[in-house]
């Protein structure tokens, strides 16, 4: 059975849900989760940040940190189209995306957008595969 969220946030993000202030409520996840949180906090000064580790849903070995979802609410996104918001997140996590991080779902909202609708869509279904797998044809 899935673990309950570690946050009392109204957001329905599933899995290991780690609100920015929730580090004391059961830990901040593994090393990569902590790095993601620290880098996004430094780069975007979010008013709300959730980091969700979806790795267990993707069949990797226990403790593998390869698939994440992030919900970032930041004033830095004000006036930016969605593509530019995602680029800011990807720039902050450039080293991780080039290495251990295989997949990243990004939800990027302004504080006003989050205030009017404090919910996140559910995680997308796992489509299988890995960037380290060799495709056969």
Automatic annotation (TrEMBL):
GO terms for cellular component: mitochondrion. Pfam families: BolA. Belongs to the BolA/IbaG family. The gene is Bola1. InterPro entries: BolA, BolA-like_sf, BolA/IbaG_stress_morph_reg. This is BOLA1 protein. Residues 109-137 are annotated as: Disordered.
